[in-house]
Design brief:
This protein is α/β, with parallel strands linked by helices. Helices cover 38% and strands 20% of the residues. GO terms for molecular function: S-adenosylmethionine-dependent methyltransferase activity.
Length: 242
């Protein structure tokens, strides 16, 4: 019971350097705004969760959220309009103007099938927006299956009728390093808590280190070039060929 309470407490600190993932969360609003600007017409959001894009969408967007029943059955709180499998979408061909799949592809055992299904239900000229992690810890196990580089994402266009029209990476190298260090420290504390391990004695030091690591990563990242060689993840925008 202590761990859920700790997570709830940390949830209130998401927008502060006191949170281990501050460098992840501080830019999420801007990322959603950039994605929302691309969206018009009928939207399918695969793995919609709590529909986080809703506040950023224009009034004319018809938002259909899809999520996977076993995910919700685990106690996950979602607001799906339709329950289904992203690898076998329950929609007719050419049904949507836009599809988003944000931090979901890594959880699909057969992403090739999912990509093909998304293009099937997307109208010619329609937009598919994918957000995927790269240098990010395993999560939601056992349902975490793969990671892609930017070039790996571009290879989908070699196997499917779509063009990659935009791609950008998330996080500068030192920010990524800070995020991974803080996540390792936080996970170590949670594991020590569950196992009643003496490593928990390091908690006061970890609480002190997390904001220092966050702020140092943020500050030093702005003093150095960013060639994208240590990205936290990617956003890729594909356009279905006519």
């Amino acid at each position: 019971m202590i761990a859920p309470k700790l997570r709830r407490l940390l949830g209130g600190l998401r927008q502060t350097p006191l949170h281990p993932q501050w460098l992840v969360f501080k830019d999420t609003r801007q990322q959603k705004q950039r994605i929302a600007k691309r969206i018009q017409g009928r939207l399918l959001d695969i793995g919609c969760g709590e529909k986080p894009l809703t506040p950023f969408l224009s009034a004319g967007v018809n938002y259909i959220g899809l999520d996977y029943p076993p995910t919700v059955a685990k106690g996950y709180s979602g607001k799906a309009d339709v329950f289904g499998d992203g690898q076998r979408l329950p929609f007719a061909d050419a049904s949507f103007d836009c599809i988003t799949i944000l931090d979901v592809m890594e959880h699909l055992p057969n992403p090739e099938a999912a990509f093909g299904e998304m293009l099937r239900v997307l109208k010619p000229g329609g937009i598919l927006i994918s957000q995927t992690p790269f240098l990010y810890p395993l999560h939601d196990l056992p349902h975490d299956f793969q990671r892609w580089t930017g070039e790996g994402l571009s290879q989908f266009t070699q196997r499917h009728p779509a063009d990659l029209i935009e791609r950008h990476h998330h996080s500068k190298p030192l920010e990524t390093a800070a995020i991974l260090t803080n996540l390792a420290l936080a996970k170590g504390m949670l594991d020590s808590l569950h196992a009643k391990h003496p490593g928990l004695l390091l908690l006061p030091l970890v609480i002190l280190l997390v904001p220092i690591i966050n702020l140092a990563g943020w500050a030093f990242a702005r003093l150095l070039p960013d060639e994208g060689f240590m990205p936290l993840g990617y956003t890729a925008v594909f356009k279905k060929r006519a």
